[in-house]
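A student in our group prepared the protein record below, which I am reviewing. What it holds is a sequence and that sequence's fold in token form. My question to you is simply how this chain folds and whether the tokens agree. Do not assume that whoever made the record got everything right. I have pasted the whole thing underneath without changing anything:
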Amino acid sequence: MSDLRVYWRPGCSSCVKVKEFLTHLGVEFESVNVSARPEAMEELRTLGVRTVPVVARGKDYVFAQELADVSAFIGRKVDFQRLPPRVLFDKWQKVLAAGQRHVMQIPPERLPERATEGRDRSIRDLAYHIYQVPDAFVQAVEEGVQDLTSVYNAPPPADVTRVEHIRDYGKGVSARLERWWRRDGNKAAAARLQTYYGEQPLHHVMERCTWHSAQHARQIMAVLERFGIAPDGPLSDADYAGLPMPAGLWE
């Protein structure tokens, strides 16, 4: 058994990505599903960690939100190719617009159902989460919020009960992201951002948030297809091109 452990949960976009990343590099690791093994979260809490994915060796660990940090942790040099911020912004807005269309296709009575087996996240929560990601990003760049998870992992407000509520939240977040880009987008390539997983180039955080939203929008399309509903204007491989999307959907 490898002494390297990856703590993850189903449906988590960064969890899927880091496991695929390590497997592609030929790095062996113990896969620890914290949803199936709740005691594993206690292991993380003893390290002062409250969220996944995390890559750990003994008491040393690294948050897996930024794969460059993971590659440094395991001692493997990787050349990451990243899309320019302008391209990321355009793709992100396309993803957010698609999510607004697709949420309106979800049968309202099915919003409380689980989005996937093995994780207690409803379809409502998953659809809302698409927009919590850019909401967290905007709060980080405008208000200095460092713990992005405090925004994008928070439960939706109790009064979010209809698909229209999720769509309208998405519209508002997209508009705020647009205003930020018009004001400060020219600084995105050089700026840095303080996050709970360390100081990061803003460009890198923006890339992760873009594909994070895209992965969850992809999951909502899969939910619609499971219901026998064809997504209206589905996102395509061309829309995802250049984003470090995981191959897997849920795990």
Summary: The mean pLDDT is 94. The chain has two domains: 4-74, 85-240.
